[in-house]
Structure formats: C-alpha cells, structure tokens
Design brief:
The complex is a heterodimer. Chain A is α+β, with helices and mostly antiparallel strands. Chain A has helices at residues 2-12, 14-49, 62-71, 82-89, 116-121, 142-147, 195-213, 215-223, 227-244, 258-271, 279-322, 324-332, 337-378, 391-415, 419-425; strands at residues 54-58, 80-81, 94-106, 109-114, 126-129, 137-140, 155-160, 168-180, 191-194, 247-248, 250-255, 274-277. The chains are: A alpha+beta, B alpha/beta.
Chain lengths: 426, 208
Amino acid sequence: MMLKLAWKNLLYKPLSTLLCWILLAVSVGIISLLILLQNQFENQFSRTISGIDMVMGAKGSPLQLILSAVYHVDAPTGNIKLEEAEKWMKHPFVEKAIPLAYGDSYKGYSIIGTTKDYLDQYGAVVATGSLYKNNFEVVVGSALAGKLQLKTGSTFYGTHGQDEHGEEHREKAYTVTGVLNPTGSVVDNLIIGNIESVWKIHEHHHEGEAHHAANGHQHDAEKHHEAGEHHHHDEEHETAHSEAEKELTAVLLKFRNPMGLVQLPRIINQQTNMMAAVPAIEVNRLFTLFGVGIDTLKNIAWGIMLLSGLSVFVALFNSLKERKYELALMRTMGAGQGKLVWLVLMEGLLLSMAGIITGLLLSRSALWLVAGRFEKDYHLSVQSWALQLPAEIYLCLLAVLIGLIASLTPAIKAWFINISKTLANG
Amino acid sequence: MLQTNNIQFSYPAVQFRFPDIQCKAGDILLITGSSGKGKTTLLHLLAGLLKPQSGHIYIDGTDITALHAGSLDKFRGQKTGIIFQQSHFVASLSVIENLLLAPYLTGIKTNKERAKELLTQLNIAEQANKKPSRLSQGQLQRASIARALMNNPAVILADEPTSSLDDENCHKVATLLQEQAAITNAALVIVTHDQRLKQLFHQKIELL
C-alpha cells in the first residue's frame, strides 16, 4: 500500500517525475554503456593476445604492428625477410613461433597465410568441410561464413590491401575448403590459408611492382642485354626470389621463459632492421589512450547524475511543500512519523530504481544497435546483456545512494511536520 | 467516552484554560465560541495533535496525554475520526483509496466493503473511483465524513464541518453526522461558530 501510494504520488506529477526519470536513465545509461564497451574491448583485446609474448615485424609503429598482426584491424607495417626472421624463430628462448603473411583481403576481411599453429593458438578447429591442403585453399572464420555467404566450395578473388575496393588479384581464385568453429576470437573474422598461397599470389605481383618502381633503372639495364640474356636473367631472378626473398609480414612468438621477454625485444630492435613489439605493453598503451576519452565521458555522465539527483531533490521538495497538508492528514489518520519518512524515501528510491533499470536497458539497446558496426569495422563482437560485475553494481548502488540523499532532506522535513499548525493553516 | 480534566495550553502570545468537557457514547456536544477563543486548539488537543501543558484527556478510558508519539499516532488513528473544515485528501489516490488509507495507516485490516457501504450511505458511491479533485465541495465533505468513520472511532471530532456549505448542505451534513455517530455509537464533538448548527444541537459548551 505504501509502495502503491509512493508510486501514485509520482504518477500524480508526471512531468517532474518524467524529468527525474529521464535524467537518471540517461546518466546511468551512458556510464553503463561506457563500462560495457570498456569491458568488452578490454576482454576481447586481452583474450586475443593471451599466448603471444612478442610480435616481430617490419620497423614502424609498434602499436600498428600489434593492431595489424594480432587484431587485423590495421595495415601491416611492411614485410620482413623470412631468412632473417627464421634466425629468431629458432632462438632457444622461443617456444613457439607462428609466421604470418598477409596484406590481402576479401571484402575488407584479411586473408592470412600461416601455419596450423595459428589455428591452434585460438583453439579453432574445422567445423564443416576440411582444413586447407593445397595452395589457394582456405578455411574461413565462423562469423565470416555467415556474413560473406562463404561455404565449402565457394571461390573468390583476393583484393590487394585491406580496402574493400582495392585491386583484385584476378590471376588466381581462392577456394574455401572448410568453415571454422566459432571461437569468440579474431579468427572468427579471418580467412586463413597456407603461406605459400600468399607468396604465389604476390610473386607475380611483386615483380610487376618492382618493374614499375625501378622502371627507369631496369630499362637502362635491359637496353644493354640481348633477348636471350634477358630470359636467363629473369630465371635467375625467379629462383633468387623464391629462395632468399621470401617474405613474412609478421611473426607471433611465445617464449619459453621470461628471459626471452626481457632480452629479445631489445636485441631485435637494436641489432636488426626488424621490430619487436610486446602486445601486452601496446594494448595497455591503447587502453590508456582511449581510457582518457572514456574517463572524460564518464565524468560528464556523473555530472548528469548529480544533476538528476538535484532534480529528484527539487521534485520531492516541491511536491512535499504542496503535500504538507496531506502528510499532516495522514498523521491524524494514525500514520507515525517513520511511515511518512519511509513514504518520501520510497518515492526517491522508486525514481532511482526506474532510472537504473531504464538506464541499463538503454545501454544494452544502444550497444545492440552499434554492435553490427563494431563487428564490421573492428572485428569485435561486443554483445552482452549480462551485468558487468562489479562496476555496474557500484553504479547501481551509487544511483540508489543519490536518490536516497536527494530524498533525505524532504524526508526529514516530513518527520518534523507540525501537524496542528499545518492543519490550522490549511 | 471523552472526558477532559483541567486542560491548559499556551502559545507564545496567548494562554488558554479550557472548561472540563464530558461527552458520552452516542452524545453530541457542540463547542462554540468566536474566533480566537481556542476552538481549533481545543479540537487539536482532543485529537492528540497538540499536547496540553497540564491536565488530562481521557478517550475511551485512556489518558492520551500520557501516550508517547508512536502509540499516540496509532491510538488516534483507531479511536478518533477527525473531520476538518477544509476537506483534504491524498490527491493522487481515488476517493475509495483515501478511505482505505485510514484503516491501513492504523494497521487495521483494510475492508473495502466497509468503505463502499459508507460511501453508499453518504450517497457518493458513484464517486468512489474518482480523484478527490473531481468532486464538489459538498461531496468532499461527505467523503471526509466517510473517512472519519472508517475505523468505527469512539470519538468523532468535527472542526467547522459546515462553514463552507450552503444551508441545504449544512443541514444534510449535520443530519449525516448525527446519524453516523448514532450508528457507530460514537461520541461526537463539533467545534463551530455556525449559528445554524446551534439550532440543531442542544448540548453545547461556549468558550469565552
């Protein structure tokens, strides 16, 4: 009955109730959305780097290397020579080294040439079809199979670069031999084949590029050769390319002991023209970077929440002034002081509860709305309806606390109402 | 039913010394007097809304001046029904919900049948589910009588119940109060300066 009365009192002032409710819901919603995003990002990012102690790639930005080699959301920093990389892949400190060759994509999703170790790293197994055996055979991640309508037997052409509208490698089509199980990791959004396929596709391409790039130079040289000699040169070039100039884009490494992590990155960075980046460090840097933005937004939302607390206070205070006679009346009908205090507090609490529930639903619906984009642009699946512990519990407690504090002063006033005076002046 | 003994009360500016009052079950007592003579103060004292400086008030054998805050609230809710000059209601609740509030707030089991019966007796049954703001002044006055009677109080206290009513309604309300007090066998104390009531009721005390 008391609850019903509190509820009806709120409904009796629909506008001010609505204002309090919306302010509370929006502030709780924003904060909860930020918590959700942050947790989801951090979870996804951290899960993806587990088991990768170091990434080796071409010199450039270490963060870019991590983003491209581990998460496949950025362009590669360049290529490194297989010959040079292998020296480090066989280093005694290294437990496991997974070579990656990538740079091409299909409809914006990366095609990775790698070894079976890569699939094992993320616990991916073939769900339907079979693993690739030959060149130009690939398996696709579970999410991609649905999104790109790929199934066993499908064929497609790779595109140079990450761009959806890049130049197609028309020479050779890839054939899908299988679809992987869902792993909840980056693999779900990748197309995976052997390294040789990537090399083969680019052999031709690279030569073409080399010709273009060194056009003037080569032209000069060619002019001094006869046709036969030219042919010979070409063959020589080809074998040299396949033996010594085989390239990788990056190598994922896991160390046997922490010594590797202490020593190898420094040595590689100083003594080779490759770069070693530690995912844990770079991801932390990334979190700090967008943590600043998230913190700013959170502060704004806390501000809105304080404002909503103030509006709850004003709403209850005003309605109490109008209802002073009502409360005195209830005292004459036998209600004790405690009951009136409880009534006012309950109104504040009901408002904060409604705000919290709507806010939490709001953040989840918002996330659900943007989830598709996140999946497409960042290859992150960010769906979660579960309460984010403990952050959201704190958030709820704080919102309740604000509702309580806001209704405390009106409640105390209700306790001290002078019934006789109020009724006499009524 | 209702008996007072030497009660005194003072505001910072004025002091009141009230004559002893006695009103038996089923009796009707009119307390009259011009403005500023402490009529409302006396009613509030009888209701336990104010505490006298000295003297005793007995309702149904209990000295309410000896009761503490919580038990006084409860006692008041159970034993006294109060009708005010201006009928005030909890605006967000319907008329019948307002009536049901009376037993609920005193911790008595709410009885919807009793509320309906009272509203029917007072001829406002069809207003039961309306908000108080939709009722006319006369209807509100009758509803507040119904509310005062909800808990079958031993004492009914009415403060200027007719001052805002026209002659016809005044007569109706007076008759209703009389009837209802008789039905529940309650002591009825009416505080008023309304000349029309003085003609209807004979047992009266004038505050000087």
